[in-house]
Amino acid sequence: MAASVPDSSDSRNHLRKHPPPDTLIAVDGVFLGFATIVLVILVGFALGHFGVLDMAGQRVLAEVAFQVGSPALMITVLSTADVHELFSRNLLATLAGVLVPATAFLVISRWWWQLPLSERVIGALASSYVNAGNLGLPIAAYVLGDAALVAPTLLLQLLIMQPLALTVLDHDRRGGAFRWGSILRRPLTNPLTLGALAGVALSATDTTLPPLLRDPIELIGGLAVPAMLLGYGVALRLGPPFGGGAPAQVAVTSVLKLAVQPAIAYACARWALGMDGHALLAVTVTSALPTAQNIFTHATRYGRAEALARDTILVTTLGCLPVIALAALTLG
Question: Of 120, 238, 270, 311, which is the most buried if we count CB atoms within 10 A?
Answer without folding.
Answer: 311
